[in-house]
Write a structure and sequence with these properties.
2 copies of one chain form a homodimer. Chain A has about 375 residues and is an alpha/beta fold. In chain A, about 50% of the residues lie in helices and about 15% in strands. The first copy, chain A, has 2 domains: about 1-135 and about 305-365, Rossmann fold, CATH 3.40.50; about 145-300, Isopropylmalate Dehydrogenase, CATH 3.40.718. Chains A, B: Its EC number is 2.3.1.274.
Chain lengths: ~375, ~375
């Protein structure tokens, strides 16, 4: 170790990320390998790592890039994938997930990263961080490989809540646009509302009201409303942000992932089929790797919980070190841009406008 | 032409398919090319072709495989993609779509094929063919490339109706299982109900009731119920049939198609990137073509309308001759297996059982 005396984590303007070391499918060694990779690449980052102290100290001691940049908080218990969220809410005080969220709650860290149980993480996040004033339902947003020049679209909600009324969908639009501005650097994101057709008369009643609300709030929300979008627009270039309820979003996400994975496997098979195609695979290796990198979910690993007092990045449960490092990179980027405060301000402004609209209606009635 | 005097279409046990020649993006020449290809491959098939007589006679005369096996029915009007279904229902009597459905209605043909406007085709099909006794909402089923040995899964509803209650979802299970037996030769199809997780406590209330109904009717419906399925199971190997409402199904279908098409385009780009990768593409040509064929939507072209007195195959609007021929092949297969009658019998049996269950409950109450 080069530093005998650790400096304060946030010395020199470092951004501190709170990381739940436990609960991922591959265990804490993978999480530590991932954050070490991030620490190596980015000198402006530091960590608070939550889990069983002895085990984590041993793992961190082996990584020189983490020296003086990673504080450990002891947490004896782990949230397992099969635990019911409600059980964790009542009995999870000693878990690493709870502890990781509390570091954001008490202001020591800006963003929390966890590979653990999504349901438990969402419920604990709501309980410990609380919803932003004006937000009814928080949402999970993901980045989806797309035909847009920046390579990705934002889609939300992909599963925080299976219900969403018109007001919720408007809030998803505001939050998703804010995420696209801060996570993808798009000044005026184009927002679409997911439906079964692009004609205005189509779809469920709550979608028609949401269409009106989203059109009326576009200027205040600093987004361009493109109207209804279809499933094909999720990987397309008509929108930057796709808004839908958590039921539909979750199914679209998993259908897309499953389809991509099937094609990937069939492609591997195709290249193994003949000696000639094996040679071809060798020749095309660099190009194929570039493609794999472009659509590799590990590179954009991380659903982001939006609508809370603080940002939570949910990494895939099966994330390897590359995946963890990608989630940390996203967390860093959002923390650095002051995303959480900007999002809060945007939602607050829209909420007060909605109240004004409602009051005006009451007056004119 | 080898035959001066056309014989009756159904001579020698030929199966007659009614084909709407108009309304596809590529016009009637493509449709005629497609059915000619089918006629060449399959001696047991004959056609009734609907559209403007002069134009169709000219096109058919050029195709020797259609000689004596294709009757033309004059229909002056065409349903366009932008026409509202309700308008066609009121004013579409002279369209080729209406005429094509009426050939099934009056028993001249067993199955109807059209590349036209989906909404209009569904509404006209309901009006002209009527729903099967016991069916509340007809559904559109598609074949989806999957990891299963037979290569495809059945998914329904992909957009006939955006709503579906528990009873409707049960009917989709019965109809989907019947389709898998007759279209994919699966003796006891495994049926899954699409949801955001596989745990029984998850999802919307109507999904919980549908889960109970589908489990209770599995034996009568001659399917195996695997419980809740997730988006990833649509291209997976856990189920043969995936049941969902038309809103979710339509979005899943278009998300999957969009994702596959994005990957295909990125793959083409990747192979053009360097001289080496261009050589690789040449070497791997056969293997890549095999893969493309496996996931080419044209090869499984055709959503099938289920729950009507007669079967309707909806081909992609942009189908080329290969696509039209694939839709005709599917129509032939379903006609030959007596699918329509079998499906009707299955639904009737389940409906009478449901009535018994309801009566039993009333008695015990």
């Amino acid at each position: 170790m080069t530093e005998a005396q650790p400096r304060s984590l946030s010395d020199g303007g470092r951004i501190v990320i709170s990381v739940d070391a436990m609960g991922g499918d591959r265990g804490p060694a993978t999480v530590v390998a991932g954050i070490s990779r991030s620490a190596k690449k980015n000198p402006d980052i530091a960590f608070i790592l939550h889990g069983p102290r002895d085990e984590l100290e041993r793992l961190v001691a082996k990584r020189r890039h983490l020296a003086g940049r990673c504080e450990i908080r002891d947490a004896a218990d782990t949230v397992r994938m099969e635990d019911k969220p409600s059980h964790i809410m009542r009995h999870g005080q000693n878990t690493s997930m709870w502890s990781a969220l509390d570091s954001v709650r008490n202001g020591e860290a800006t963003v929390c990263v966890s590979c653990g149980n999504t349901g438990a993480l969402m419920l604990l996040s709501m309980v410990r961080l609380k919803k932003l004033p004006g937000v009814n339902r928080p949402a999970i947003a993901v980045l989806w490989p797309s035909r847009n020049p920046h390579g990705f679209n934002v889609m939300l909600d992909v599963g925080a809540d299976i219900r969403a009324d018109a007001q919720d969908l408007l809030q998803y639009a505001l939050m998703g646009a804010s995420y696209a501005r801060n996570g993808l650097d798009i000044t005026t994101p184009r927002v679409g509302l997911l439906n079964v057709g692009t004609e205005e008369h189509k779809g469920r009643p709550e979608l028609k009201s949401a269409h009106e609300l989203m059109a009326a709030n576009a200027e205040k929300g600093n987004y361009q409303f493109v109207g209804f979008a279809e499933g094909g627009d999720i990987p397309g270039d008509r929108c930057d942000v796709i808004v839908t309820d958590g039921f539909t979003g979750n199914i679209a996400l998993k259908t897309g992932e499953g389809t991509a994975s099937l094609i990937g496997d069939l492609l591997k098979e195709a290249f193994k089929y003949t000696p000639l195609s094996r040679i071809a695979a060798l020749l095309a290796l660099t190009s194929l790797r570039r493609l794999a990198k472009r659509i590799d979910p590990r590179r954009v690993n991380g659903g982001v919980f939006l609508g809370l007092n603080g940002t939570v990045v949910k990494s895939h449960g099966s994330a390897d070190a590359t995946g963890v490092s990608a989630a940390v990179k996203l967390a860093f980027q959002l923390a650095q841009s002051g995303f959480s405060d900007r999002l809060a301000a945007r939602v607050a402004a829209a909420t007060s406008q909605l109240h004004e609209m409602t009051n005006d209606k009451d007056k004119s009635a």
